[in-house]
Write a structure and sequence with these properties.
Layout: E1 3-4, H1 14-23, E2 25-28, H2 34-47, E3 62-65, H3 72-78, H4 81-91, E4 95-105, E5 113-116, E6 124-125, E7 130-136, E8 147-149, H5 169-173, E9 183-185, E10 192-196, E11 201-203, E12 212-221, E13 225-226
Parallel strand pairs: 1-2
Antiparallel strand pairs: 2-10, 3-4, 4-12, 5-11, 6-13, 7-10, 7-12, 8-9, 8-11
Amino acid sequence: MTTTEPTTAFTLDDETISAYRRDGVVRIRNIISAEEAARFRDAAAAASGIAEDYATNSPIFNQYVNIWQQNDVLRELTLDPRLAAAATALAGVPLRIWHDQVLIKPPHNGAATEFHQDAPYWPHAGSRHSLSVWVALVDVPVERGCMTFIPGSQDHQDLRSQDLSDRDDMFRAAPDLRWETRTTIPLRAGDCTFHNAYLAHSATPNLTDDPRIAHVVIYIDAETSFTGGGHVVTDGLGLTAGSPLEHERFPRV
């Protein structure tokens, strides 16, 4: 797993890009400053008291989807050109935003986010690449719910969706992955990881007295088509199955 500092606000070096394409994950230090992270942390905490929690009653985390459409401060982070430029360089194809989400693990939540892939949940067809940037808005050591990845597992692109509350479900779907090397990546506030949407990943419970707060932006191939399947961010939009996701909810970056 490669860790890097952005060479400028908008570029990544070839080594970082190569490592991402090999492993499916890369850590970037200080993608935003600690001061910016604190500002966005406060906005996320405030928004969580107003926005709908799509994981109500889940012991794993609280999930606030499409927060960029509800909070002007967090909109800045979702649309930040530093994130978009890094995502585009890593993916190697033009991208659009699928959705964002604030994920909060409350103090002592007692539940892990078990191994899963993201892409099998999405009603997408024809995508050449999709990935997420997971920005830590607070320090996230292992005991606060940082993520663990299985490098190279992005090659498994024909799996069903997995139950992220069941610690064995990923390995029932892909038994070989149980024995692969795992990489755990703690983050300081302002750091991020980018991970491929097919990369198996998990997160530990939050064992600390403070909430774990992360802001996630999901990018997809700009030419991705809609399958017609149900999803919280497409339901009710009147999209046509087989058509590109050309809608203001999914802006190109």
